[in-house]
Amino acid sequence: MTNFTTRLMVAAATLVAAAGAASAQTMKAEIPFTFRANGAVMTAGTYRVTLDYTSGTPILYLFNNDGGHSVLAQARVPHDVPKAWQAAGSPVLSFQCGSSLCSLSGVWSGGDRPAYNFATPKLGKDEPVRVALISLRAEKGD
Q: Is the pTM of this model over 0.70?
């Protein structure tokens, strides 16, 4: 019975891993500016961006290919995709930029999925705000 239980546990673990891989989407982004994500300051560079939908709320993983820095951020409540994003047709990262630093503020992985926002630091009362959009593209295999 122990051998059967072990095989059953291995099969269950394999199934969970396969389901997780199928529901995670990996893309690439060229981010040309320093930014803040989930409280961490990230440098400009090429990032591998993975959206993991295995939990109830999507989690975004950012991994900097140049410096090896990484961060994860939990998405907030889903919302309708802005029309400009849909019109462009490609997945996108959105940043809220103040006078000194940009902060990751949203993501859309394309298709029929909703867009998600991330918590951002409060800007100064009269601080100018702009939005920067970075297109995501499919990551090619090695």
A: yes
